[in-house]
Amino acid sequence: MKSPVLSSNSAMAYLQHLNAMGVSSVPKPLKPVVTESPDKDTLLKELAQEARSCRKCSLYKTRTHCVFSDGSSDAELMFIGEAPGRDEDVQGVPFVGAAGQLLTKMIQAMKLKRADVYICNVLKDRPPGNRTPSPEEMAACLPFLEKQIEIVQPRIICVLGSVAAKGLFGPQVSITRIRGQIMEFQGIRVVPTFHPAYLLRNPSAKTDSWKDLQLVMKLLAE
Ligand code: URA
Predict the structure, then answer these.
(1) Ligand 1 pocket, residue 122 CB under 6 Å
(2) pLDDT band at 5 (very low <50, low <70, confident <90, very high)
(3) Closest ligand 1 atom to the C-alpha of 163?
(4) What is the Cα gyration radius of the chain?
(5) In angstroms, rounded to a whole number, what is the distance separating the alpha carbons of residues 134 and 128?
(6) On the CB side of 12, how many CA atoms lie within 13 Å of its CA?
(7) Domains with residue ranges and CATH for the chain
(8) Ligand 1 pocket check: which of 79, 107, 121 to mutate, most ligand atoms within 8 Å of Cβ?
(9) For 182-218, what is each residue's pLDDT tens digit?
(10) DSSP annotation of 115
């Protein structure tokens, strides 16, 4: 409904009427309360701080750095690996060692820049000696990954390797069976592929891996 517009004469008459009724002042309208929600970078910073202080498993005792993420919080594509290795633990950045360098090349082959994607791991702390993460460590750390996905809201997730695939889809999945398929996690399409460390050991698997990345590119272009 349109609010009535008073002419200056009738407005004056109305104020005089109010005054005659004993109303000497008109309260100022309250300012609407605007609650701005924090942006993605702020939310991720807070989450990273939470991860740094997390004591749900014992990996914090042996790590150098908690390795939270790299890349853009606005990324359309998220890569999820297993856990930091030695180089990552030292530098505090995921995928910077030999496997990380291959991942960077894979990203570039997709005509993307590393800075434009979001890179993280299931575990935020390095398991000593790069051993496979235990199911308890995975369960303790998974809420951080779920929250990262919820905040970044990528259009596509590319899961790297068996451990990350099991982290998202359960211990029964086999990366060789599910790679190259389109799966779903938290309503987001997920393409699992081989871990770059596996590709370094098994270069012949690069052909399949490239097919998976091409599928990711196709989904991103849709
Ligand atoms: N392997 C991973 O899974 N993640 C890293 O960050 C480095 C190596």
Answers:
(1) no
(2) low
(3) 3
(4) 26
(5) 12
(6) 3
(7) 40-221 (3.40.470.10)
(8) 121
(9) 999 999 999 999 999 999 999 999 999 999 999 999 9
(10) G
